[in-house]
């Protein structure tokens, strides 16, 4: 903005203005956002092979700010826990690991943190408590993999693994688990991209397009930083 105000070269100023407006439009354009997201997210696989253990990564499963021990409110990425429940009911998995810690300290005893909320949701939905394991130390995807590996060893859990997380996050999650020698079958949830044909309304700017694209951009940054740190 300062460049546009103080630069006296009108030709360059016009070019910068045009570029700024064009990029702003693209980031808010559902057609552009959906195209990039659909190329990034894995293709949905409805033929999931049987596995013994399902690993669900937390992050947006439960609305912690509203949920209490008497009432659970699901978050934007609650499809993760639903996909685990669906596989359990279909007898494709027999054990479920909920992986992910909670950054904030639980001061209110009635407040329900995400990992516990996900567990309560599964139990309310018919999953046996003894079939649920909680990994509550991890704060990021790399630690999800590290501490899940520790839990599997500690609890003597053996069998094929299904990794359940949001589609936009699956590439980084799979790479992290591979790094700790855990081979998993990816089960994508909470797809952001749409399979429907692009229509005229998809070229009208919407804030939702930017929000969805932001998830993917954050993943690109996360993968780049993880590679630099040797996590992948």
Automatic annotation (TrEMBL):
UniProt cross-references to InterPro entries, sorted A to Z: Cell_Envelope_Assoc, DUF218, Rossmann-like_a/b/a_fold
Source domain of life: Bacteria
Domain DUF218: 55-222
PANTHER family assigned to the protein according to its UniProt record, in alphabetical order: ENVELOPE BIOGENESIS FACTOR ELYC, INNER MEMBRANE PROTEIN, PROBABLE PERMEASE
Name of the molecule in the record: YdcF family protein
